[in-house]
Automatic annotation (TrEMBL):
GO terms for molecular function: folic acid transmembrane transporter activity. The keyword Transmembrane applies. Keywords: Membrane, Transmembrane, Transmembrane helix, Transport. PANTHER family: FOLATE-BIOPTERIN TRANSPORTER 1, CHLOROPLASTIC, FOLATE-BIOPTERIN TRANSPORTER 3-RELATED. Residues 7-16 have a biased composition (Basic and acidic residues). One of its GO terms (cellular component) is membrane. GO terms for biological process: folate transmembrane transport. NCBIfam families: fbt. This is Major facilitator superfamily protein. InterPro entries: BT1, FBT, MFS_trans_sf.
Amino acid sequence: MEEQEEKETKQPRHQDSGGNHTRRNNVRKAFGEMMLRPLQWLKMLGEELHWSFVLGVVIVYGISQGFGVGLSRVSTQYYMKDVQKVQPSQAQVLIGVIHFPWIVKPLWGLLTDVVPIFGYRRRPYFIFAGLLGVISMLVLSLHKSLHLAFALLSLVAGSAGIAIADVAIDACVTQHTISHPSLAGDMQSLCGLSSSIRALIGFSLSGFFVHLAGAKGVFGLLSIPASLVVLVGILLRESHVRNFAYKRVKEKLVDASKTMWTTLKCQDVWRPCLYMYLSLALGLHIHEGMFYWYTDAKEGPSFSQEVVGSIFSVGAVGSLFGVLLYQNFLKNHPFRDVLFWAQLLYGMSGLLDLVLVLRINLKLGMPDYIFVVIDEAVSRLIGRIKWMPFLVLSSKLCPAGIEGTFFALIMSIDHIGLLSSAWSGGLVLHILNVTRTQFDNLWIAILIRSLLRLIPIGFLFLIPRSDPKLSILPSEMLRTKKSNDILEQENIEMASLVNSID
């Protein structure tokens, strides 16, 4: 009885004195769980897909493509404008040419899938891609007065290095998508997060570096991400292909091409590919016209290098939030539903540039920088949400055995769409007489672009409405063909540096 009375007397005092403490503990616990959730997610991916896959994605997508592209975009734009002194329409076309290696990605995919070098299918291509990037960036940085043709050739070579490394890591992504279809959205989120976070860092530093070292100095810094791709090739551990019949390479290339053509003829494959091309081609890329207007002292706001870099960095934040929104709220929704709203908002967001160029924002009392930052963040966020379903869908359209090749084929179709958008945008800028100093008709180009972005909504019937967690291809296309000269996909992993030294 005494013990019971003692408990009864202590309980109210404990509740009164510890209530606030309990609530604070709950808040701390919830905050701790929220902070640990990304780490738990990465741990889950590492356990399900192997830690080496996560590391490879971070290096190639994050550092090489994300951070590297973040630096190279601003430096290339200033290099074309200030060093080579080309017109915006011409720069628009040249930027498209620089991305030409991405159009021939199926060639790199065929080589990595079918033609091993010294018995390895991935490692030599990573090393070659990294060395190509290092050499091309050093040429651009160290040569004092490089002719435009040779400068363009070096930029294309650097782009080719990134594209080859991209094909190799894409093969790993697609093979895991086949073996773990329910994690397809998570894998693309990992790729998108790695790229967006590093792009944020790259864009944040790009303006500062361009101001400090100039565009050519930034090219020298870009040799560092390329050298890390070489490191990926050194650390990569994969099964050695023994007794490979190099005399049968031609036969295997023909067989792989036939498999690609058979898959591409499948209705569930060519219809989404056609929609992806139309959606990208009708986007009408006029970024170079906007960039020249940004930096113009008379007609535009005359942004400095640091300001331009900060604008793009905020855009990278918007892209990052787009990945997070897709990962947490949209990845389980049907592709067609997500793309409908993304495409609609993508067209409407283009009108923000119209408000800016017509100086309506100043009449509303909003400074140029604040409005441009909002514009860039919103546009990149919507663009990333629109791009994520494309990546997930593309990874689900790849047959077993030629995953890297076919994913590269789909991505090349997408890049043909981007190239069509860039060249058509350059043509529009040229017809409307948008030059280095004349921007009177830039608003017409923006209006045309916004209207064209809405047209793909009418072609959404080409996109399947299936569950994004399920496979799209017939089961017979997802069966890996066994052969004594084909590398077992599951054996690809990255060896630790200690094991490499041993």
